[in-house]
Amino acid sequence: MKKLLLFIAAISSVEICSSQSIYDDFDDYKVGQYLGIESGGLWTTWTNNPGGSEDTYIVDNQSFSPDNSIQLMSGGVTDVVLPLGDHSSGSWTLSFMMRLTEGNGGYFNILHDFSAAASNWALQVYFSQTGYGNLVVGTGFVTAEFTHPVGEWFQVQVDVDIDSNQATMSISDASVFTWAWSEGSTSPSSILSALNLYPAAPLGETALYHVDNVSFSAFGVGIDELNSDISIYPNPANDVFYISNPQGSVVEVFNLLGESVYSSQLTGGQSSIDCSSWAKGVYFIELTSE
């Protein structure tokens, strides 16, 4: 099923084009094939060897949005990485859906510097089979503990404001912890480099988890955070979405290349926008009024 992810943006098309945004639900990839190969280089592995033993497979035994996801399981050397662009400024939101198989834990980390064994960790997060997790910032001490679901999908989100040196992690929209973003495992750093998915778990546990709908964008204002005068729904959208109360507004929609795919003058009330012919992906909506 086609999915379009919508973001509000009070920016120009030039700024859209120069930013890096990612949305990957794995649904266009072939089941049973390697993630690094199917993604066309979007994903890599710990030693930059897509299609090798560290890579993981596209699966359809679990998914948040039909039909595919990726699976991380103990017992091999799976270690996949999503490079995020080595950003040194701006505000960024990274989120993904995660599901722990009952009786198993999970893990991910975010890197200041992606250099295999010489990498600099910003944070590491462990999910336990018991439904209790912990977040490790920088040098390796447990900084925060939290609860999480097991056996069902939940959202993990990390918001990073590099300019203010602040980061926050949330589980299913509930804030877990806020810390100074620059803390690192080897040295302080402001860089936002990569997401690393590795089949680790707390001591004494095995890992088996799935990840779906990975999103990364500089435009962290989502539909739920819009002010009460504007509402855009549904999000993600399939064939049509609606904008309510945009009286006197001009709407323009851009794709990730900064190309305008839709433009119209809205007169107020509820307006529908047909997106059935648009390619699946992330789109930015610019509303302009007095």
- Summed up, the helix count is 2
Average pLDDT reading: 86
Largest sheet, if any? 8 strands, antiparallel
Low-confidence stretches: 9-19, 220-228
Please indicate the percent range of residues in DSSP E strands (runs of 2 or more): over 45%
Q: How many beta strands in the DSSP annotation?
A: 22
The amount of helix comes to under 10%
Shape: globular
Order of helices and strands: EHEHEEEEEEEEEEEEEEEEEEEE
Oligomeric state of the chains? single chain
Please state the structural category.
mainly beta
Radius of gyration: 19 Å
Q: Give the terminus-to-terminus CA distance.
A: 38 Å
Could you describe the 3D structure shown?
By secondary structure, the chain is mainly beta. Helix content is 3%, strand content 46%. It contains two helices and 22 strands. The chain has helices spanning 13-18, 35-38; strands spanning 4-8, 22-24, 44-45, 58-59, 69-73, 80-87, 91-100, 106-113, 120-127, 132-137, 141-147, 153-161, 166-171, 174-179, 192-197, 208-217, 231-233, 240-244, 250-254, 260-265, 270-274, 281-288. Strands 2, 4, 5, 7, 12, 13, 14 and 16 form an eight-stranded antiparallel β-sheet that branches.
